Q: What sequence folds into this?
């Protein structure tokens, strides 16, 4: 099983958002870390996120790979897979 599949099985999108320091409200909405967002405009679905403000979409569980391991106001370095019990080679 490849690393991407292991991460997706071990960590939910909501857990990934919380790991990166995003406050998830009851409707699974967060302030988008990809633009200057004052009110939650990003919806966290079971398998992906979508921002109604800027149109960003994807999988927060894997975003550290594409965004240089940092999401907006979130935690620098590290990897959501580290806390999810999945090995990371850096």
A:
């Amino acid at each position: 099983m490849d690393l991407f599949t292991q991460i997706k099985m071990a960590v939910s999108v909501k857990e990934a958002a919380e790991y990166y320091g995003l406050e998830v409200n009851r409707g699974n909405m967060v302030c988008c870390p990809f633009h200057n967002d004052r009110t939650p405009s990003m919806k966290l679905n079971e398998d992906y996120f979508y921002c109604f403000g800027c149109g960003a979409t994807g999988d927060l569980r894997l975003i550290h790979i594409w965004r240089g391991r940092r999401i907006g106001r979130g935690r620098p370095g590290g990897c959501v897979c580290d806390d999810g019990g999945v090995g990371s080679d850096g």
Remarks:
- The mean pLDDT is 76.
- The CA atoms of residues 69 and 78 lie 7 Å apart.
- The first helix runs from residue 3 to 10.
